């Protein structure tokens, strides 16, 4: 795990976007693992800027997203397919048939998860996986638990995640209580991983992920076992690490 400190959110997004852009330039058929939430928005904005300047071509890129709320379809403004269209796919020349997000409208969880797992296997290893960090240490929607779950699964979201994500909904009651998430295996099989963390609310989770035991109680802690994980964190996200070292 290598940690890069950026002075602020803008700087860490710039660095992460540079890595993604070089991956696409070196490997136009790259398979990118993408994430949602507020953290990666600055990365997508930067990639779009380079695309608009003619410096990046997404036409052969494949993307596999980490997760989707169970019950939300592509038209739902808080759904992750909607998010991806809004912040990236509708703004660049990607072929949408090469973009994959779990099907939130499939209410049969086993079916939804098996189908997504098949897609992940069929597309092969992810070349570069972009991750945000939940304030409780989650990656994708792999919530803290007793075991690491390898495959795509249906997750009962923790109270703290529902609370944290309620800022995107009109009320907490509207936040779906379940989601489909890529499992730890899909994430760990990626060739390279970027973990982005910004803000004080991520500082404790980042400290535990980097310095704590490897435990399913802090899902991001498993990233220590990956040979190529780069953490891009701003000063606030690094505040607990700095305090304790
Ligand atoms: O970036 P945020 O909005 O703080 O969310 C943290 C993480 O939780 C998720 O929303 C759950 O999927 C991730 O996409 C994100 O990286």
UniProtKB/TrEMBL annotation:
GO terms for biological process: carbohydrate metabolic process; glucosamine catabolic process; N-acetylglucosamine catabolic process; N-acetylneuraminate catabolic process. InterPro entries: Glc/Gal-6P_isomerase, Glucosamine6P_isomerase, Glucosamine6P_isomerase_CS, NagB/RpiA_transferase-like. The keyword Nucleotide-binding does not apply. Gene3D superfamilies: 3.40.50.1360. Pathway: Amino-sugar metabolism; N-acetylneuraminate degradation; D-fructose 6-phosphate from N-acetylneuraminate: step 5/5. The active site is at 67 (proton acceptor), 136 (for ring-opening step), 138 (proton acceptor), 143 (for ring-opening step). It catalyses: alpha-D-glucosamine 6-phosphate + H2O = beta-D-fructose 6-phosphate + NH4(+). It comes from the Bacteria. Belongs to the glucosamine/galactosamine-6-phosphate isomerase family. NagB subfamily. This is Glucosamine-6-phosphate deaminase. The lineage of its organism: Bacteria, Bacillati, Bacillota, Clostridia, Lachnospirales.
């Amino acid at each position: 795990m290598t940690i890069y400190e950026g002075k602020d959110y803008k700087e860490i997004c710039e660095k992460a976007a540079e890595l993604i852009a070089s991956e696409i330039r070196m490997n136009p058929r790259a398979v990118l693992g993408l994430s949602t939430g507020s953290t990666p928005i600055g990365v997508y904005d930067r990639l779009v800027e380079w695309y608009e300047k003619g410096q990046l071509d997404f036409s052969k890129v494949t993307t596999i997203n980490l997760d989707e709320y169970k019950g939300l379809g592509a038209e739902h403004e808080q759904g992750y397919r909607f998010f991806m269209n809004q912040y990236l796919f509708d703004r660049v020349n990607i072929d949408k048939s090469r973009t994959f997000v779990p099907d939130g409208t499939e209410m049969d969880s086993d079916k939804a998860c098996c189908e997504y797992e098949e897609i992940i296997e069929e597309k092969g290893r992810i070349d570069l996986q972009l991750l945000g960090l939940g304030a409780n240490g989650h990656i994708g929607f792999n919530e803290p638990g007793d075991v690491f779950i390898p495959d795509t699964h249906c997750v009962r979201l923790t109270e703290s995640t529902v609370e944290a994500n309620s800022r995107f909904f009109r009320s907490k009651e509207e936040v779906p209580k379940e989601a489909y998430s890529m499992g730890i295996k899909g994430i760990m099989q990626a060739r390279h991983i970027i973990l982005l963390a910004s803000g004080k609310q991520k500082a404790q989770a980042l400290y535990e992920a980097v310095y704590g035991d490897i435990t399913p109680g802090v899902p991001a802690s498993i990233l220590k076992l990956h040979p190529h994980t780069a953490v891009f964190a701003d000063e606030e996200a690094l505040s607990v690490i700095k305090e304790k070292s």
